[in-house]
Design a protein that fits this description.
Helix content is 16%, strand content 35%. It is of the alpha+beta class. The strands form two sheets. It has a four-stranded antiparallel beta sheet with strand order 1-2-3-4, with no helix packed on it. A two-stranded antiparallel ribbon has the order 5-6. It is globular and about 35 Å long. It starts with 17 loop residues before the first strand and ends with a strand. It comes from Sphingobacterium thermophilum. Pfam families: Trm112p.
């Protein structure tokens, strides 16, 4: 995903802005692994292989996302994802 894409995206549920967090980038500075978090409802959208996963909750596939969630837990145990929302302790 190109970093400039963040300017065109919003939370599909409440249309609020999204905060971009980059974990890995390509040599062209495109986002390879990262996340988008809604600043209002705290819904969490992972970016996996450069693709933001922004489906409605009922169509999201935890099997696709669970590897990324495990990666987050290893990196920062104070963050947790519940019902596709970011919970920080």
């Amino acid at each position: 995903m190109k970093i400039s894409t963040i300017n065109k995206l919003c939370c599909p549920f409440d249309k609020a802005d999204l905060k971009l967090e980059i974990k890995e980038q390509t040599i062209h500075n495109d986002v390879l692994i990262g996340s988008l978090t809604c600043v209002h409802c705290k819904r969490f959208y992972p970016i996996i292989s450069g693709i933001p996963i922004m489906n409605p909750d009922e169509y999201r596939d935890l099997e696709i996302e669970k590897g990324y969630y495990a990666y987050l837990r290893l990196e920062d145990s104070s963050r947790k994802i519940e019902n596709f929302r970011l919970i920080e302790y």
